[in-house]
Amino acid sequence: MKSIKTLAVLLIIASASAFAFAQNPTPTPPETPNVVGEVIVTADDPIYKNLRLLSSDSSAFSGEYASVNNLVLKKDEGIFTLQNGEIYFIKSVEGKTTGAVFIGNGEFSLTPPTEAEKKHISIFTDKPEIKDNFKMLTMFFTDDTFEEIKKSANAQMKTNGPQAEKARNAFRNKENLLKNAFRYNISSRILADIYAPNRKGFFTAFIDGDKFNKLIYQLDPIGLERVYPEQVSLTSYDSETGGIWAAFHLAEEYKNGTGNSWRDRRIYDIIHHNIETKVDGTNLIAKDEITVN
């Protein structure tokens, strides 16, 4: 298969107008657009390539790890109590740690914030909540999880832990699950936040529970695709109980009265494309002039 070596994207801003979504779905683009920059994206982007290959390194989890005792991670309404054990961190990329595996004894608890979601989760748990113990937790994140653990009085940072390879195998297993079963590119999601460091990061955890051993808890401030515009969800990928168990907005949105189903989280609106492509040997070169509001 011929590889795509280069994709040139020319970003064009329509005007210095205030942020707003277009009322007319096909507005006339300005005659003299303001070209604000040109971005070259290649398949060999060094950061992206590093992220994709990170866990394949046999020493990926041989660096920092934390010995923890009753460490609590509160991710919106989801609460992870790491009673005792070790958290192994994948080595950092661009100074940012984006993944970890906990091995030990822990508990996950969640009470959805709305009555509708409490009723829905009770279909699977027979209660308006879930509480389950686990012995392994695999995490992907771009939020402050690493910093939070490192600063906690309930965590003691060390290096070269005895279960580093076990942690790496668990992490790679969940990476493959995301890629092959869910068709989700976690590396590109991480890359997006590395390139937008001021944005609040996401948190995803695979919970290997004692009773419910195939759960995923997700939190993403920009919204989750399957339950958009909600930002928090609990999902099962078990063959019998698979599906969305609960989905809701961040607690701060309910507090502010902005947690509703018609919330639009787009940070810009693309109103016009002008795409030119050219085949040059084994290269496919594309130029995309984009007009946005």
Summed up, what is this model?
By secondary structure, the chain is α+β, with helices and mostly antiparallel strands. It is built from 6 helices and 13 strands.
Fold and architecture overview:
The structure is a single chain. The strands form two sheets. The protein has a nine-stranded antiparallel β-sheet with strand order 7-3-4-5-6-8-9-10-11. Strands 2-1-13-12 form a four-stranded mixed β-sheet, with no helix packed on it. The protein has helices spanning 46-53, 115-125, 145-151, 164-181, 186-194, 251-256, and strands at residues 6-13, 34-42, 64-75, 78-89, 99-110, 130-141, 155-159, 203-209, 215-219, 232-236, 243-248, 270-280, 283-292. With 293 residues, the protein is α+β, with helices and mostly antiparallel strands. A hairpin with a 6-residue loop joins strand 10 (232-236) and strand 11 (243-248). The protein has six helices and 13 strands. It folds into two domains: 6-44 and 267-292, no CATH class; 57-256, no CATH class. The chain is globular.
Overall number of domains: 2
Q: Report Rg.
A: 22 Å
Major beta sheet summary: 9 strands, antiparallel
User: Strand order across the biggest sheet?
Assistant: 7-3-4-5-6-8-9-10-11
Poorly predicted runs:
1-25
* Helicity, as a percent range: 10-25%
Count of alpha/pi helices: 6
Features:
single chain; disordered N terminus; nine-stranded antiparallel β-sheet; 6 helices; 2 domains; globular; alpha+beta; four-stranded mixed β-sheet
